[in-house]
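Side project, low priority. Logging it here so it doesn't get lost.
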Amino acid sequence: VRETPEKRILIIRDPIDAVKLHLPALRRGADLVVLLANLSLRDLTSVLTAVPGVDLVLASYGARLSPGALETIAEVPVLYSGDQGKNVGEVRIKFAGKGARPAMTANHVLLTRRYPVNPQLEDLVQKTVARVNEINRQKAAAAATVVGPAPVPLH
């Protein structure tokens, strides 16, 4: 748990541990599990190799763009779309039926000034970020609660 200079609370976990923790519940309740990741190719490969069960990864890391369309890492379709909001990665998914692997196609959209800012969407993003920060502050406060003295010295 970390606090930024702006007083935002961040909870940081090893990516492999985080996927291991959340994937089983997601897998039970979803037709498709999509991992959103800001990981290097090496780190993402480690995650996907260690924890099978992710169906698609939408990733960013530096200026890396997946060549052409989707690339495959550890048998999982992956789309890297760069960083800093310069590109939007688009994946279209067509479900073929229960148990069948869906068909996927991908594209990159380079964001330029021809795409205007949407004030309603910007407001929604700001409200969501504020709410997530408040939830993280509450979790950090709960984790920092003193439960009593230790029965032995802790030094």
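Brief comment: The radius of gyration is 19 Å.
Revisit when time allows.
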